């Protein structure tokens, strides 16, 4: 992962800046005068260097968007040179959608050259939004990550040449746009959103119910129901009407986990055995599956809330979140998340099914 370097590379191609000329006039004369004072100043500098200096600090401001963000914690996590996550640099609690963090500028030995041919050095940081349940300012195992910043926080020194048209010395945010110049954020206006936290999912739609004397029912049934003979209780099982809805909030039972994880299928079937639930005693040859507006099978997948920067980055990039995710099966190799504005646009109409 080196989106920052790639972004700067694209930006350099886009810029028309030429070589920067430096005016050396007067420097030779100044050199002689400066040399006379070197003896005195060297002694002072040596004395000063022996004393430990306080670290230089700065303030980063975050605009936090999404629902129920107040009380969550924003953390700035150092990225190693290979972009694996390292230590947390600073953390702060969100209040009224804002978080301000005091950070120490990195030492020179913690900076690395960002691109060959330039003397610019820097350090990169990821930002996370998580539920700091023990309030220690450090992300611990079991504390769910609710968001990860699309923009990297970067610290740079010695910005020169064409790079100076894009970034500057000090702290800032950088978001890769895929093509062209990256998006740059001021250090006081860094964005992060509550995008991968578990939410309550409500699916709704219509049903075309075949004429029959037997009552039809709908259920959210684990995919493992069709792959084993185990007795499994659906997480939802009700009489199917022409208009229907189902709410998914809590985690599924442990015995619902199958080869594909926790995957629940919306199915409708006639209650031919009169058990008052969808079961193997029903005529499952008549089964209908929940379909999207595109005529594809829809399922609900439960994902454990992200517990690391790597997981959070994957969820964010793939369009998933912790908890319930609604997915649409275009093909065996093509499964995509369904947009939330389509959750109320499902159907049991026989237009889709598994082969």
| Helix content percent band | 10-25%
What integer is the average pLDDT?
A: 85
Oligomer: single chain
Radius of gyration: 29 Å
End-to-end distance, in Å?
Answer: 39 Å
Q: Which spans of ≥5 residues are poorly predicted at pLDDT below 50?
A: 1-37, 47-51
General description of the model:
The protein is mostly beta strands and 355 residues long. The chain is 13% helix and 36% strand. The strands form 4 sheets. Strands 2, 3, 5, 6, 7, 8, 9 and 10 form an 8-stranded antiparallel beta sheet that branches. Strands 13, 14, 16, 17, 18, 19, 20 and 21 form an 8-stranded antiparallel beta sheet that branches. It has a 3-stranded mixed beta sheet with strand order 4-1-11, with no helix packed on it. A hairpin with a 2-residue loop joins β16 and β17. It is elongated, with a radius of gyration of 29 Å. It starts with a helix and ends in a 7-residue tail after the last strand.
């Amino acid at each position: 992962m080196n989106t920052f370097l790639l972004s700067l590379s694209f930006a350099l191609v886009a810029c028309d800046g030429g070589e920067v000329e430096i005016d050396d006039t007067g420097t030779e004369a100044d050199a002689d005068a400066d040399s006379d004072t070197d003896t005195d100043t060297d002694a002072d500098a040596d004395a000063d260097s022996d004393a430990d200096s306080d670290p230089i600090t700065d303030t980063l401001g975050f605009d936090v968007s999404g629902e129920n963000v107040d009380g969550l914690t924003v953390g700035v996590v150092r990225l190693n040179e290979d972009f694996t996550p390292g230590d947390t640099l600073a953390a702060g609690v969100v209040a009224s959608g804002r978080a301000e963090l005091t950070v120490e500028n990195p030492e020179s030995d913690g900076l690395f050259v960002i691109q060959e041919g330039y003397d610019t050095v820097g350090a990169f940081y990821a930002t996370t939004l998580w539920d700091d349940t023990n309030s220690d300012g450090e992300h611990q195992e079991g504390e769910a990550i609710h968001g990860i910043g699309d923009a990297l926080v970067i610290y740079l020194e010695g910005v020169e040449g064409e790079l100076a048209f894009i970034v500057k010395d000090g702290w800032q945010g950088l978001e890769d746009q895929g093509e062209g110049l990256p998006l740059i954020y001021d250090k006081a206006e860094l964005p992060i959103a509550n995008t991968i936290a578990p939410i309550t999912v409500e699916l709704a739609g219509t049903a075309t119910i075949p004429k029959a004397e037997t009552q039809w029912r709908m259920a959210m049934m684990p995919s493992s129901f069709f792959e084993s003979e185990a007795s499994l209780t659906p997480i939802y099982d009700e009489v199917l009407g022409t208009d229907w809805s189902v709410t998914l909030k809590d985690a599924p039972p442990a015995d619902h986990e199958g080869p594909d994880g926790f995957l629940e299928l919306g199915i409708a079937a006639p209650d031919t055995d009169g058990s008052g639930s969808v079961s193997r005693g029903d005529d499952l040859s008549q089964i209908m599956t929940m379909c999207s507006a595109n005529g594809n099978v829809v399922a609900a997948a439960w994902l454990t809330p992200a517990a690391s920067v790597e997981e959070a980055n994957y969820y964010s990039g793939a369009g998933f979140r912790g908890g319930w995710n609604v997915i649409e099966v275009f093909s065996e190799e093509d499964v995509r998340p369904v947009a939330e504005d389509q959750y109320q646009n499902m159907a049991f109409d026989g237009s889709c099914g598994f082969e």
